[in-house]
Structures are given as structure tokens and as C-alpha cells.
Write a structure and sequence with these properties.
With 79 residues, the protein is mostly helical. Helix content is 67%, strand content 0%. It is rod-shaped and about 60 Å long.
Length: 79
């Protein structure tokens, strides 16, 4: 399954290329703009989620297992 940030970048650039096609009809442009809005909305959410994960990882790196009870999605302090 493709769920990496590089895949997100590829989708964003592919959509940018679709928007740059100069011989689109007004209806096709409208459809691509709607698609772009949806993709951008999802991409923003994925980016915010990745940022949150990075912040949690930084907290763990700085404070070790002591923060795990406060970050249940990372794991528990049980080995």
C-alpha cells in the first residue's frame, strides 16, 4: 500500500500537471479544480498528522519512556 509522503508529493504534482493542460474545456477545468480542492484538503490533513507524529517523536526522544503514558498512540512503557 502506498502511504508515504513521497506518494503524496507525487499526487500533488500529478494534479498540478493536470491543471496545466491548456486545451481543457471549461467543464473539465471545473472538474479538475474540484478535484484539486479535495486533494489539497486531504494533503493538508495528512501533513498536519505527520507534523503531530514528528512532535510526539521529538518528545519521546527528549524525555524517553516518561512521556509514553501521555502519548498512547506511540506505545506503552512495557517492554
Amino acid at each position: 500500500m502506498k502511504n508515504k509522503m513521497v506518494d503524496l508529493n507525487n499526487h500533488l504534482f500529478a494534479q498540478l500537471e493536470r491543471l496545466a493542460v491548456e486545451d481543457l474545456t471549461p467543464e473539465q477545468i471545473e472538474q479538475e479544480v474540484k478535484r484539486t480542492d479535495a486533494i489539497v484538503s486531504l494533503a493538508d490533513q495528512v501533513s498536519r498528522n505527520a507534523d503531530l507524529q514528528l512532535k510526539a517523536a521529538k518528545l519521546y526522544a527528549e524525555h524517553g519512556n516518561a512521556v509514553l503514558p501521555h502519548l498512547p498512540q506511540i506505545g506503552s512503557d512495557k517492554a
